[in-house]
Amino acid sequence: MSEMTKSPTHYRLLATFKAIGPYLREQECTKERFMFDCLASCVDDSKSPEEREFWGWWLTLATVDGGFVAKYHKGRYTLAGTWSEEPITAKAQEEVVKTQVKFHEKLLAALQPFELEVTIDQESQEFV
């Protein structure tokens, strides 16, 4: 495999991450760090859409030689548009974990052609 393929550009990585699905938060990405998140389960779906908060996860993917270090977090996406790391209700836990596992599988598959590895940060919240 060519050196260019093994060391993809920032823009090639952005395109690869966008192809995974709606998880990438491009405006929060830099050349050294990529941000992803997922609103997996509504906190209270009886509220009107503009008043809803969500349980979910977010990921900071930091570049290192040979790949990335992934740091996952779980919590609530607030009305203010920010994440709050807090325990997820038992009712929402299954959906949050399911979406996180599926995303991580897609992430690994997307990076395989570049021969880049993803290691989980020791401070990352468990999801499997």
TrEMBL record:
GO terms for cellular component: cytoplasm. It comes from the Bacteria. It holds the Pfam family Crl. One of its GO terms (biological process) is positive regulation of DNA-templated transcription. InterPro entries: Tscrpt_reg_Crl (IPR009986), Tscrpt_reg_Crl_sf (IPR038208). Its main location: cytoplasm. It is found in: Cytoplasm. Coiled coil: none annotated. Keywords: Activator, Cytoplasm, Transcription, Transcription regulation. Binds to the sigma-S subunit of RNA polymerase, activating expression of sigma-S-regulated genes. Stimulates RNA polymerase holoenzyme formation and may bind to several other sigma factors, such as sigma-70 and sigma-32. Belongs to the Crl family. This is Sigma factor-binding protein Crl. It comes from Vibrio astriarenae.
